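step=predict obj=RNA polymerase sigma-70 factor, TIGR02957 family n=293
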Amino acid sequence: MNRLELFDRYRSLLFAIAYRMLGSFTEAEDIVQEAWIRWQHTESIVQSPKAFLSKIVTRLCIDYLRSARVHRERYTGTWLPEPLITERPDVEDRAELAESLSFAFLMLLECLSPTERAVFLLREVFDYEYAAISQTVHKSIPNCRQIVRRARQHLVLRRPTLSNFDDRDLLVERFLDCWDRGDLPELMTLMAADVTLWSDGGGKVVAAQKPLQGCQKVARFLVAIRRSRLTPTLVSQVITVNGQSGIINIVDEHTHSIFSFEFTGDRIRSIFAVVNPEKLGTVKIKLLRSISG
């Protein structure tokens, strides 16, 4: 098997690691491309291509996050991950996939240092042995174990309590129907009392600088968007975003925004609205035409 075939075997894994590390489709692809360049120029014999390539990608991501920290601290408004338009995963894979790809999970990872994030992801999401993780991040095995324990406690991951993912899908469909009709009372019943709306415009377009919180405030804001003459007419549809149901909003065959959700019980707990055009460019025009047509 030649170098390209070996690399292609692990390409999806490498992208999965990079995207969860960076929260960006574009940056993750750049990291994978850089890993390919380094793989091409590797002269020594590699016993485990998977371990070797995973280490390259993880180290590149750690270095990138360290250099990007200042940029993210100066980001205009709320920073949200770049949406990843995915296929609907198989039922048996959905719980794990949705949790590790969800906006809520990726935003929680932002409170970890780059090295802590790498250790936590490699162990908890990708099930790497501590020995391999230790070699990747240049820390002892006991130290890596301690990082994972601290990260678990710090993140306090909020796991969904819905009985199955079909319930979530139905909830998002009901949300879109109520939003389309401007049904304020019904829309409020779908959201938790302390629901939060996060909006990421990145200073490129108009967006709320601070999160909106509270069932009535968020519902009124969403209905106002639909009714305002200053807002272009949106064509909206439920799609799979970051492993679970989300909403894509189209204006003239261009992506206006993408909504992702976090749930608690049978209610929506958080709404993540990405409107920064720089984070929406990866959506295929083919997909947009199928939705608007």
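step=describe
DSSP finds twelve helices and six strands in the chain.
step=end
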